[in-house]
Design a protein that fits this description.
alpha/beta; five-stranded parallel sheet; 439 residues; TIM Barrel
């Protein structure tokens, strides 16, 4: 599970976050207790736990120590090796890191906890409650990034000539376009409005929905879901942000709307996306996560509609299979995935807010495809967690503070369907968040 290649991959990822760019190094020694690398003119020896303790770590059965973060912002959990309480020491020009910053990082980056867990929810998704992040209470801590910042301290002191290129905090709004129209026929429209009334009991929003319904009868462009796409685009443009819109090419099913990707109004929106420098990607349907043939068909549909190769992708319902989905996405030309987040809990599923290469266990090497992990989405805050507006704001503030410190990218998902539905949340959470963090 934790091979030399796997640890080399983890060091490579952490070093890139620490320095802000890739740097070459070589492995000098690898054993049960450590892995030593040569970086420029010095060796760095990383202490690691043994195989049995690694298995316990994966199961959440090891006790972690606390260490101050690089800026003393808070205490972060870390696996202590041996008796030394200091982060590192030098012996004969060799740097010895006394804490294991690699093993837990590898589990988080690779999703090894997801691979070994058999329990899934009703949509066949890995459950937050079975994750290492839950077991060690690190979901709100970008642990890999924090370890990288500790390593940056070591590098600054021991490599005075090494260049550090700190990355700047950024926000990337993303939008899954599950459907382009809310109101399509009287029966479906009435059901939609009634379900909203029963669920939210918000008479004001139901009246607004009825108003949109009557307006859309004469002009589909006035449908709230369609207007939601336009509004999200304009909001990002006004805030100097580059949104990514994920469009579906799935056939109709119980979980996929199956809208017409060649819809004339949608074509106009796609042109606006291109003209404003925003990005269009694919939102692969419910049945694609294990089926390359279905994925291929949907990618071809979306590519034809957007007029260029599909590079960006996020799975519908965040359904993902660690054994197959990355392979299929990569084989079909996708270069960046945005799926890695929990539906039921906001935070750092992968321990990082930085782009990284996921790990291919079958070939014991990193994938070429990159992952930009999802930090949170609208339905996590409003539905899964049932936050009030104040609680949702507090959560976003906390996460953004922690991402800002480590120069990461806050990937947030807001659906076009939740612009003119749950409008209080949209205005007072999403818009407020963008306004507070605008450039």
């Amino acid at each position: 599970m934790r091979t030399e290649n796997a640890l080399k991959y983890t060091i490579d990822t952490i070093l890139e976050i620490a320095l802000g760019y890739k740097i070459e190094f070589s492995v000098v020694e690898f054993s049960e207790q450590n892995i030593e690398i040569k970086l420029k003119n010095k060796n760095i020896n990383f202490s690691i736990c043994g195989t049995e303790n690694f298995k316990k770590l994966l199961m959440g059965d090891l006790e972690l120590s606390d260490i101050s973060a690089f800026d003393d912002y808070y205490k972060i959990p870390i696996l202590k090796i041996g008796k030394e309480n200091i982060l590192y020491q030098t012996e004969n020009e060799k740097i010895i890191v006394n804490f294991d910053i690699l093993s837990l990082s590898f589990i988080l980056l690779s999703g090894l906890d997801e691979l070994v867990s058999e329990e899934r929810d009703k949509h066949d998704r890995f459950l937050y409650r079975n994750s290492v992040a839950k077991k060690y209470n690190t979901i709100k801590v970008p642990l890999v990034d924090e370890y990288a910042m500790l390593l940056r301290i070591i590098l600054k002191k021991e490599y005075p000539d090494i260049e550090i290129k700190p990355r700047q905090f950024s926000i990337t709004p993303t939008h899954d376009i599950d459907d382009i129209y809310r109101f399509q026929g009287p029966v479906k429209s009435i059901k939609s409005i009634l379900s909203q009334l029963l669920r939210s009991k918000n008479i004001k929003e139901v009246i607004i929905a009825l108003k949109f319904f009557f307006q859309s009868l004469s002009d589909q462009r006035r449908d709230p879901y369609f207007k939601g796409i336009e509004t999200l685009l304009k909001v990002s443009e006004a805030n100097g942000l580059k949104s990514i819109f994920f469009f579906m090419g799935a056939n109709p099913s119980a979980f996929d709307a199956g809208h017409n990707i060649q819809d004339k109004n949608l074509k106009a929106i796609l042109k606006q996306i291109r003209d404003t420098g925003m990005i269009a990607g694919i939102h692969p349907g419910f049945y694609t996560y294990k089926d390359r043939n279905v994925l291929k068909m949907e990618i071809e549909r979306v590519q034809e509609a957007i007029g260029h190769p599909v590079v960006h992708s996020r799975q519908h319902y965040l359904r993902f299979d660690r054994q197959q989905t990355f392979d299929n996405l990569q084989a079909e030309g996708v270069e960046i995935d945005y799926t890695m987040g929990f539906a039921e809990e906001e935070g750092f599923k992968c321990g990082t807010s930085h782009e990284f290469h996921p790990y291919d266990f079958k070939n014991d090497m990193p994938y070429k495809i990159k992952e930009k992990p999802l930090i949170t989405m609208d339905v996590t805050l409003s539905s899964y967690k049932s936050y009030s507006v104040a609680e949702a704001r507090q959560s976003l503030d906390l996460l953004s503070q922690r991402i800002r410190r480590t120069g990461g990218d806050f990937i947030i998902l807001w659906h076009n369907a939740y612009v003119y539905r749950e409008m209080e949340f949209y205005k007072n959470v999403y818009l407020e968040f963008l306004n507070k963090n605008r450039k």
